[in-house]
């Protein structure tokens, strides 16, 4: 049997954790259940991730790459307002295509706020920074640093709010309609700057 590299094994555990949390919640995301979902021995999980918090943070790290991925779909030469709206639209589209990630992200963040406030704060800070960098690359220097920070925070709040609402109502058509409303609002804000 061929040996699997630690990085590939790490990604398997992250993906398994997302599926387990989406199905069973954070409280029932045991390392045993995650290892079984990944099809790996429990000892391998403990070798790759020393603590469950390390594993949970790795799930977030895998989600931090979303803003740059969303920008790949944004047409070049768009206005700052259109770019911001399209980034929001593409992020929600990514979550629609990966509903387990949407559920896991929400569950994990609320868990972190209750059980590890420092992790929650770090997650939020890193998400803001990644979003700011993504918007900066997409929009160039059209926005001041203060407005870029405010726009990034609003974009994250809109994504979080839309995904939490979707978790509650489960209606994909409603999510798409609410996303378009949020895109229009974000575009109007950015255009007014």
TrEMBL record:
Residues 7-67 form the HTH tetR-type domain. Keywords: DNA-binding, Transcription, Transcription regulation. It comes from the Bacteria. Pfam families: TetR_N. Residues 30-49 bind DNA. The keyword 4Fe-4S does not apply. The keyword DNA-binding applies. SUPFAM superfamilies: Homeodomain-like (SSF46689). This is TetR/AcrR family transcriptional regulator. The lineage of its organism: Bacteria, Pseudomonadati, Pseudomonadota, Gammaproteobacteria, Pseudomonadales. It comes from Pseudomonas carnis.
């Amino acid at each position: 049997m061929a040996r699997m590299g630690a990085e590939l094994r790490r990604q398997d555990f992250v993906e398994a954790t997302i599926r387990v949390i989406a199905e069973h919640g954070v409280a029932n995301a045991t390392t045993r259940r995650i290892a079984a979902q990944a099809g790996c021995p429990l000892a391998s999980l403990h070798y790759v991730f020393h603590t469950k918090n390390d594993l949970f943070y790795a799930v977030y790290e895998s989600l931090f790459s979303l803003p740059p991925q969303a920008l790949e779909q944004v047409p070049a030469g768009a206005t700052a307002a259109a770019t911001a709206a399209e980034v929001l639209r593409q992020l929600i589209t990514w979550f629609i295509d990966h509903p387990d990630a949407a559920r896991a992200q929400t569950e994990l963040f609320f868990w972190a706020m209750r059980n590890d406030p420092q992790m929650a704060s770090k997650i939020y800070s890193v998400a803001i920074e990644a979003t700011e960098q993504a918007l900066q690359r997409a929009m160039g220097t059209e926005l001041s640093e203060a407005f870029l920070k405010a726009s990034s925070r609003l974009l994250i709040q809109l994504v979080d709010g839309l995904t939490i609402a979707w978790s509650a109502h489960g209606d994909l058509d409603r999510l798409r309609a609410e996303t378009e409303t949020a895109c229009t609002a974000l575009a109007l804000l950015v255009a007014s700057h």
